[in-house]
Automatic annotation (TrEMBL):
Cofactor(s) the protein needs: pyridoxal 5'-phosphate
Database matches in PANTHER family: GLUTAMATE-PYRUVATE AMINOTRANSFERASE ALAA
Domain of life: Bacteria
Keyword check for Acetylation: no
Domain Aminotransferase class I/classII large intervals: 60-395
UniProt xrefs under InterPro entries: Ala_Aminotransferase (IPR051926), Aminotransferase_I/II_large (IPR004839), PyrdxlP-dep_Trfase (IPR015424), PyrdxlP-dep_Trfase_major (IPR015421), PyrdxlP-dep_Trfase_small (IPR015422)
Keyword terms: Aminotransferase, Pyridoxal phosphate, Transferase
Pfam family name, one: Aminotran_1_2
Enzyme class per UniProt: transferase
Name assigned to this protein: alanine transaminase
Length: 405
């Protein structure tokens, strides 16, 4: 019987966060091992549940959510999103500019599919949230990575960004606050991106899903607010700050020169209608989520749970010889560095698998985030402090044996 073959479009598509390492962990769990899973940015397993008022609201709307909705999403949710951006100064974002999706993930694929021709290039940060690279590759485009600078708070190296622009470049992806580095970008960096977009006629894809998760005095600036004359797509959703990734609800807001974007908007409307509509019950959670005071502020304030976990994780990890990490200004991760002089890692995926097998802890290797060298790993700061302490103890024990003597 001939092999059923997969499409060649998948040849270069990688998403290692849910790849062989996760399979190895599942196998060990099936054998009865308890794995400390610190590989995904999912708050729910760590007792960080969605605000009760939002869940109650969704339950209330469940019976009335049985039918399909408008392809772009229900009017009340899209209104709430546009009003939210207007209160943040983005006056130009109207209801018609909002598309709701089954999480930001679906919208990343949809917006790129509507945009790219084969071999078009999109600039993506390194390290990145790897879905961006995978989605560009799947559409036939080419992901070109610009470097973020660990020595400068993981902010993008703007000279590298500019150097990587070619006549095939169509857009730039900005992830702010950033997964996996925790960087929050200052206004002047975003202005530089806007200047480059203006100069080279590029579209800005600004993934702001961690907008509300910030520590200390980190300020979030919407890319769209400094790029009012640039075609900009702003992505956000309920998965992180509102802690409901399983409900699958996100959105994208279009802003910039309206006339220049009309053909693209129609293409997006077509793609939105091909998937009929986003999950309807979760759309009812949007208005309540955006509408009032939500408990994320308590989690990130001094003494708040996320803040304590961030601080403790940083303190303990960086106490291990040869381990350093830029403190996260936002999001839920540390992207830690292992000094290559002490830890000569050739294959960081294998390193993480060995750690899993020996210490029953699952973390993510740096190259899974398209980081070019094998000297980083991502540490999720969602577990309670006691679990973070246990996790670091295990990593430290493993590194002790691994260390070059
Ligand atoms: N963008 C970034 C930067 C993320 O880290 C994630 C999830 O981890 C997503 C998008 C996907 O979010 P969603 O659950 O809305 O699909």
């Amino acid at each position: 019987m001939p092999q059923m073959q997969h499409s060649s479009k998948l040849r270069d598509v990688r998403y290692e966060l849910r790849g062989p390492i996760l399979q190895a962990a599942k196998k060990m769990e099936a054998q009865g091992h308890r794995i400390l899973r610190m590989n995904l940015g999912d708050p729910a397993p760590f007792g960080l549940e969605a605000p009760e008022s939002i869940v109650v609201d969704m339950i209330h709307h469940l019976r009335g959510s049985q039918g399909y909705s408008d392809s772009k999403g229900i009017f009340s949710a899209r209104t709430a999103i546009s009003q939210y951006y207007q209160t943040k100064g983005l006056m130009q974002i109207g209801v018609e500019d909002i598309f709701i999706g089954n999480g930001v993930s679906e919208l990343i694929s949809m917006t790129l599919q509507a945009f790219l021709e084969n071999d078009d290039e999109v600039l993506i940060p390194a390290p990145d949230y790897p879905l961006w690279t995978a989605a560009v590759t799947l559409t036939g485009g080419r992901a070109v990575h610009y470097l973020c600078d660990e020595a400068n708070q993981w902010w993008p190296d703007m000279a590298d960004v500019e150097a990587k622009i070619t006549d095939r470049t169509k857009g730039i992806v900005i992830i702010n606050p950033n997964n996996p580095t925790g960087a929050v970008y200052p206004r002047h960096i975003l202005q530089r991106f806007a200047d480059l977009a203006r100069k080279h006629d590029l579209v800005l894809f600004s993934d702001e899903i961690y907008e509300k998760i910030r520590y200390e005095d980190a300020v979030h600036v919407h890319t769209a607010s400094v790029a009012t004359d640039v075609c900009t797509l702003t992505f956000s959703g309920l998965s992180k700050a509102y802690r409901m990734p399983g409900y699958r609800s996100g959105w994208v807001a279009l802003s910039g020169p309206r006339a220049a974007m009309s053909e693209y908007r129609e293409a997006l409307e077509l793609l939105a209608s091909l998937r009929l509509c986003p999950n309807v019950p979760a759309q009812h959670a949007i208005q309540t989520s955006l509408g009032g005071y939500q408990t994320i502020d308590d989690l990130v304030a001094p003494g708040g749970r996320l803040r304590q976990q961030r601080d403790r994780a940083h303190e303990l990890l960086t106490a291990i010889p040869g381990v350093s990490a830029v403190p996260a200004a936002g999001a839920m991760y540390l992207f830690a560095r292992l000094d290559p002089q002490l830890y000569p890692i050739e294959n960081d995926e294998q390193f993480v698998i060995d750690l899993l097998q020996e210490q029953k802890i699952l973390i993510s290797h740096g190259t899974a985030f398209n980081w070019p060298t094998t000297d980083h790993f991502r540490f999720v700061i969602l577990p309670a402090v006691a679990d973070i302490e246990e996790a670091v103890r295990r990593i430290s024990a493993f590194l002790g044996a691994y260390r070059r003597s």
